[in-house]
Specification:
With 163 residues, the protein is α/β, with parallel strands linked by helices. It is built from 3 helices and 6 strands.
Length: 163
Amino acid sequence: MLLETEQSQVEAQGRMLNYITPHGKWSIHSTYGDNLRMMTLSRGNYPVWLNDKDAAEMGIADNDWVEVYNDNGVFVQRCTTSARIPRGTVFVYHATERTIGIPISPLRKQRAGMNNSLTRARLKPVLMSGGYAQFTYFFNYWGPTGVNRDTFVFVRRIDKPEF
């Protein structure tokens, strides 16, 4: 936990939560995620999901812009609040196509990335065993499954994102 938040703890103006990126909710393999039907279903973006009580305690309302960050990176997006999200948890569905509306992070002063900006690539060691010499492993390339779906982040509300 401390590895992803040591530096961010100093600048934190938000609350630390567990960050999980489940399988993409608004993706179709044969169609882009920015077509009219998919944008209608997803409010036109891939929101940050927060528990409604956690959000209220942080002064965040449904559809507010939030900044999610840790030492690995930053992600700025609108927030969806829901009682279905467990307390202390942030959900951002993965496999986002950030082709529309990528704001600049007020904290880091750079484009506010995507869901994987906050995670680190870690490999499952058991999937590298067995002497499979025909496989070549490169960063972000065909190889063993990564386990980069769980980390800790800080979340804070932002008033007006800059594009």
